[in-house]
Amino acid sequence: MNGKWQKRLFLAVIYTLVFLLVREWLIPIAKLTGTGHLGLFLIFVGLCFALPLAGTPRWLSASLKVVFSAWFITRAYLEGPTGIGAVLRFFAEEFRVNTQALLSGDFAGITDSFRTVLFLALIWMASYLIQFWIETRMSVLLFYGMTLIFITVLDTFSPYRADAAILRILVIGLLLVGLLSLAKLASGQSRMPSLPSAVLMAVPLVLIVGVSGALSQMLPKSEPAWPDPVPFLRSLADGAGSGGPGEAGKIGYGEDDSMLGGPFIGDNTVVFQANVKSGQYWKVETKDTYTMRGWVNSAEEQELIPVGNGTPIADPLLAGKSRDEDTAELTMTHDFKFIVQPYGAQEPAPVEGVQFLKESVTGKVVPFRDRAPVSLERYSVSYSEPAYSLTALRQTMPDKLPESGFERYLQLPDELPQRVRDLAAELTENEPTLYGKARSVERYFSQNGYVYDQLNVASPGAGDDYVDHFLFDSKRGYCDNFSTSMVVLLRSAGIPARWVKGFSEGEDTGRKGETRRFEITNNNAHSWVEAYMPGVGWMPFEPTVGFNGAGGIDYDLNIDDQPEEQQETPEQAEKPEQQKEEKQAAAAGSDFWKSAGEFFSNHRNFFYGAAAVLLAAAVFAWLTRSKWLPKYLVARYRRRQFDREGFERAYGRLLKQLRKYGLTRADGKTLSDYADEVDAHFGGTDMRRLTGAYEENLYGGRETVPRADSLRESWENLIYRTGG
């Protein structure tokens, strides 16, 4: 294997390890921010490293990355038709909306798709920096250190647990540092070691790091040397300043929700563990009556309905397809006298001596033994994850809502401030479907500067409405603020909605086969929203900033085997609404281009003048290229190493420049004869020296270039002479 391919093989190993390090950055970012499509981000990272490694021209590499980014954005954010017309309208609308947001300084109005574009651009730039560190500096120590600091800070101050990640980073980083150090030693030799020799040099390093990593994983770990600093730091923050929000409570699942508000302190106490295939939201109960300060139930006494032993829980939420049925195995570490339900729960597995009863209003399922509620240490629940048809959701017109049966899910206090109702009308007036109205309300919080915060949360005054205070005054809070506000806004818009309590998915602590193990703590106590969609059922929505909703639910999936209630309306009924949406999008795009046309018309003289200046500058640059191009080439190649590969590129560039100058190499003429011709024209022996070194390196197989500084001087001398 020649030196060029041996170097590429070495770089392929290095970039694979770097890719694994970058992956350790993306995993916690995706988990903590609710960012989806992690696999697509990783593919983009792979492209950023693989294309330069394969020797792809820069213009082609950049083009492929841009095309992939456009496909990524279309796949992730374009709902509905994906034809070329719909895609172009989508990008035109995104350009219009984000341009207006940036020019007006409304950074909260920037769309998620544009944020994704910025994140992809950041990855692209970071990949160039990493390539510079590796191929020029032969060191990634700075990037390695930054990765360790990033992960340890997240492990300390966020819910992300990096026990396994830190070990992986240490192993990968030590391999990287060791291999690059060996490469530095080899580069100082007159000849690159052969592939077998290079492998023999690397084997001890790999064995030492691998064995050390395995022992670190298997051996027992000592307890932390000092206590967790987070509670102490939070206590300092709570005591700082004046006029704070008041005494903080402790986060966790509680029964009384009649007085919401005020700060909470986090609690990492594990309350249960779940073995499931994927992350789930764990539902406990719903509440239906809003009191201006919190939630209560409209029914003081509820009917208890037996479930299990063949009787399904029968939540009116649409269940998924039967072939997707799975079982959640739960181990409780807290004394909860209810069971937690994954979405699409069907029935709990039988437990000897236990009867499962479901409350008719709240949906809470309580285990009874000897007619008394009990807590179970272990149980399992079968479920089929819900899936929704985009076609059915597009047919959720307001006139399809039943006229009765949903009064308690439309209840609002008479004293609710009018501006809350006005906001609901403003958010939903341009959406024809109930699903569109609900999505508009759901997105409102993330796009209008609302902040998730558990500590610096002010309680509303004695006569204030809880939702009104959050929407218009504080704009800061946690899940109860966001979810309660969305329910009230939906009800104000005439959409049946209810408040849901339970737990978010928890932390993924490992897997066994296809099953993942999640730890759910008091910090995961959560609330969200369910809204009724006619023909679909109760559907979850997640308005809380930083949370990504009930896991595993694909709102935009077309399902062939839907229940009959979803197939009452033929597919053709979708077309008028689709055409209306397309007309609205086209009108918005037309308005944007009309405004752009008016702006151009009003400033046409400026644009014509600028175009003329640019054209004149381009013509002048072309006519004088023989003067400035040599200076540019010298400056460009001075930044490059004059190793074997760099010298070969520089020599090829010199031949091209000589050809432009007029010294064309005739067919059949050897490089030595051509060098004599060039030196005879310019005088001196620069071309002979360069050609001799080129042939020696080409046929001698050297990786280093002897007398590199002297050869660089001869090369620059000839380049300058081609400038006349």
TrEMBL record:
The chain crosses the membrane at residues 9-30, 36-54, 112-134, 141-160, 166-186, 198-219, 606-623. Residues 471-545 form the Transglutaminase-like domain. Residues 563-587 are annotated as: Disordered. Keywords: Membrane, Transmembrane, Transmembrane helix. This is Transglutaminase-like domain-containing protein. The keyword Transmembrane applies. The keyword Membrane applies. Gene3D superfamilies: 3.10.620.30. Residues 572-584 have a biased composition (Basic and acidic residues). InterPro entries: Bact_TGase-like (IPR052901), Papain-like_cys_pep_sf (IPR038765), TgpA-like_C (IPR025403), Transglutaminase-like (IPR002931).
